[in-house]
């Protein structure tokens, strides 16, 4: 079966006919007629699939949905039985480079179909652990503006500098100081008014369309990863799980490592990725102390059982081979990815900046690169030659000195 190379056509046929929904639909498509009366008796999932009755076809005993794709024209989507959904999502999302919803759906659309495919794909991607760590949540979280609360002395430090300007009109110091004080008081008052006015204006603009959905105390969260330098490939979030232990006003949260160890840190909402949608959800706040007893502090990872189906790779006989080719709609071997968890560039200088601190570069080297006729190798050779010269010079100088010293000694004696 070319849609899923691990499954033979027979296997797919068998899986489809043993599926509760597909077996009923297959019957209808085989008969080729469907009345409203028949439809009303069916279950909800069957009805949903039968809405596409006109586009459903059976080819060599396998149920397909015929569609017109913009890219590949008319193509047949394999109708996926319940047991194959997990495999399809795993293959076309996890093993295909963890693409976003749109691209994963595009891959799916060319190959397979089931009734609630779009929602299933969205849910799968939303709860994909790798995607959660690597990507920013959509829609972007925009907390309302607020101030960060320091949790230890000198945690947050801000300083203003001001310089007293000499008054030009009054040289008398007392007058000057009084004048200055008056001016300062007035300007401070005006500045304060302006600051508050502008701050509230800014806050109002910033708070437009903010997502202030509070994170519950005890929720498991991820912390933002601040990578310095070039960071195209790096994850957006640290994989280390934290959990919320306090919630202050102004969207500031007190967080601690998920196992309950380490100090409590205060961070703003912007620094937090709520994993609430994963099955790693922490229990309510009342359970916090109890949860710290468990090994991962309540970081409950639900491991979905792999599909219990035996995967068969069968070399088919010549007769079946031909049949296989006819049923083949599109070749859909997923890109091979040994380690689907980490995306890495293959470049040897990946992640390395040629001059990260913008240090001054040698003019000679620059010229060498500009004028192609001077090769950098020549400079290496030149360096070696100078080094050799240095050694020989040193040797001869040493010799001369020794001779001189000997002469000096002899003359002294
Ligand atoms: Zn993913």
Automatic annotation (TrEMBL):
Segments of this protein annotated with the region Disordered: 317-359
Cited Pfam families: Integrase_H2C2 (PF17921)
InterPro entries: Integrase_H2C2, Retrovirus_Pol_polyprotein
The Integrase zinc-binding domain, residue ranges: 80-136
Coiled coil: none
Stretches that traverse the bilayer: none
Protein name, per record: Integrase zinc-binding domain-containing protein
Native source organism of the sequence: Mytilus coruscus
